[in-house]
Structures are given as C-alpha cells and as structure tokens.
Amino acid sequence: MLGISISLNTLSNHGACTAVFVAIAFLIGAGFASIRTLGKVTWIAWVGLFGIMASILVLTIAVGIEDRPAAAPKDGPWKSDFLLVGDPTFAEAATALSSLVFAYAGTPAFFSIVSEMRDPKDYTKSMLVCSSLVTAIYIAIGVVVYYFCGSYVASPALGSAGILMQKVCYGLALPGLIASTMLYVHFPAKYVFIRALRGSRHLTSNSWQHWTSWLACTFGIALISYIIASAVPVFDGLVSLVGALLGTLMCFQPMGCMWLYDNWNKDRAVRDSRWMIGVCMSVFVILSGTFLMVAGTYGSVLDIMKSYEATGGSAAWTCVDNANAG
C-alpha cells in the first residue's frame, strides 16, 4: 500500500495528499483480495509480474546509461561510491539483514498455493523454480543498480533514475504493486476465514454468513495494513521492521519447529547423519530467526526514529510527498 502511494505520487506529481493515496491503495487491495479463489486472480498476478519485471529492467538500463542517479549531487563530476565491503554499525547491519528477510517473507503463502493447486505433486518443482528465479533476479538487478548508484540508491529503488524514468518505472510497476497488495491481503484473510468457519456449512455456501465473514476478513486485514502503512510511511524502515518483527516469526522459527515436530521422534535406528544435520539446521534457523527478530527490530526502530527526527522527515498520516529519490 505504501508502494502504491509512492507510485501514485510519482505519476501525478503529488496530485493529492499522500494519506489519500494510501487510502486508495487500501480500497484497491481489499477489493481485489475479496475475490475468493486464487484461480480467479491468476491473471492479475501475471499482469503484475510482467509489470514488475518490465519496470526493474527499465530501471537497470536507465541507471546504466544516465549520467548519475536522481539523488546524486547535480553539479561537478560524479562517480559511484559503491563498496564491496562496508562498515555499518550493528543497528544498520541488522536493519539491512531484515530487509533481506522481508524479500523472502512470502514463504507462508506457499501453504495457500499448494492447497489450491490442481496437482499438489507439482508443488516442490514449482517452489524450486520460483525461488531460484527470484534469487537470480534479486542478485543480478541489485548488483547492477548498486554498482551504478552506490549510496544514492533510492528507496524504493524504482526512484533511482531521473524524473522521466521514475514515471516510466512506477507506471510499469503499478499493476505489480496492486497484485502484491491483493495477494498479501488475500492469503492471511483466507487463513482466518477457514479457521473461523471450519466445520460449518457456511465455509463453502453462498450464504450471507459466508460473505459477511469473508468480507470482514479481507477488509479487516486490509485495514490493519492501511494503519501500519500510514503510521510508518518510511519505506525502507517499514520494510526492515516488517521483515524483522513479522518476517522472522513466519519464515524462521515456525519452519525450524515444524521440521523438529515431524522428525524428532523418529526411531533411533534412523537417526543417522542426515537426521543430525536436519536437527542442527532447524536449531540454527530458530536461533538465527530469534536473533534477527530482536536485533532487526531494534535497528529498524532506530532508523524510523531518525527519519521522523530529520528535517522534512516523514510523519504518520502525512500529506507530504513520499515520492523522493533519497
């Protein structure tokens, strides 16, 4: 939702209050997320995927051919100040790691996806292909953009190029931002909905109880998202905070605990070296997730506080243009 507000601000030259754009994103996300089955929203996801891919490829080309990134000094010679090895503080390092956690925080969505697949046996293959492609794109695009922009990479990165290319990139990315909002509202809403109506005939009927419950779940989840996006309108800080505080709780500790739950009570005869590696990996995932949850949240809160204290910094429910290039 925050990304959509930045996109709309960029495309309209801050044509309305930022709080209004976040509210529009809330309505769009809740509306599309209320479509009940993933099969009926697949086309939106495909449109969003191609939009996002086109936007980041255009961005990558633009930063490579332009003289300097949008946030860099306008006068005098300029050279990218990228570093292979940086010197961050503990809080900055924890915040950066939390952003990486956020990038992979869609893992819990796999459960919803496999439950609606025509052939669940294809799940592992699909997951491996998806994760491999996403990781390759993250690395390739991230390295190229950082090489040309250095410390002047914008957040979101789509704002790193010049004004015209920012509009092009955000225009292409807008369907993808809408699709992402839709999916991230739809998945948790469906979790709550199925848990609430499990064992009831209203789970699959078209009764008013069914629709009232379903819309309450989608709009309720969207409302929570809207409040968070409006209260913490600092994109990089919000990404790190969600990654540290919530991403770890969904992608680290539960996954390690699930493996231990499934395999801990195996017969001693099958507790071979592979089993020991699995135990060690699961314990490591749980401990590292807990560490990142505490350290990353600390670093993210400090980062958000600095943004609030800065001159012209962000504020909750603000009308200030958030489509900056810094």
UniProtKB/TrEMBL annotation:
It is found in: Membrane. It comes from the Eukaryota. The chain crosses the membrane at residues 12-32, 44-65, 93-114, 126-148, 168-193, 214-235, 241-261, 273-298. GO terms for cellular component: membrane. Keywords: Membrane, Transmembrane, Transmembrane helix. It is a multi-pass membrane protein. GO terms for molecular function: L-amino acid transmembrane transporter activity. Residues 11-301 form the Amino acid transporter transmembrane domain. Gene3D superfamilies: Amino acid/polyamine transporter I. Coiled coil: none annotated. InterPro entries: AA_transpt_TM. Pfam families: Aa_trans. Belongs to the amino acid/polyamine transporter 2 family. This is Amino acid transporter transmembrane domain-containing protein. It comes from Massarina eburnea CBS 473.64.
